[in-house]
Amino acid sequence: MTRRWLPGAAAALLIRPRLWATAGRQIVRLAPPGWWRRWPLLPLPDPAYLRFRLVTQYGDPGHAPEPRDVIAYLQWCRRQPR
User: Fold this and answer.
1) What is the per-residue pLDDT across 4-44, written as a single tens digit (0 to 9) for each?
2) How far apart are CA 45 and CA 54, in angstroms?
3) Distance CA 20, CA 53 (A)
4) Nearest-angstrom CA–CA distance, 72 and 34
5) Of 28, 56, 61, 74, whose CB neighbour count within 10 A is largest?
6) Model pLDDT for residues 62-74, shown as the tens digit of each residue
7) CA atoms within 13 A on the CB side of 23
8) Cα dist. 38→25, 44, 46, 47 in Å?
9) CA separation (Å) from 11 to 14, 33, 66, 73?
10) In whole angstroms, how far apart are CA 58 and each of 1, 52, 55, 64, 78?
């Protein structure tokens, strides 16, 4: 799966400063251990986890996450007790 969805999700997040901390926490939580040792040097979720989430969300592992769904997920995470 390509990462072409990242700029759209980042743009949607950029205009929602209340979700920045939540997004940071989720990036850390979802990044696989040692992510900095593998290319690309980004804390992206494990591909198997992302594939599972895409199948459960869209029914298709090749469907790119939609920015509105990323925002909805982060809003849900923000509302959850820590």
Assistant:
1) 888 999 999 999 999 999 999 999 999 989 989 988 888 88
2) 12
3) 21
4) 28
5) 74
6) 999 999 999 999 9
7) 18
8) 20, 10, 12, 13
9) 5, 26, 12, 15
10) 14, 10, 5, 9, 22
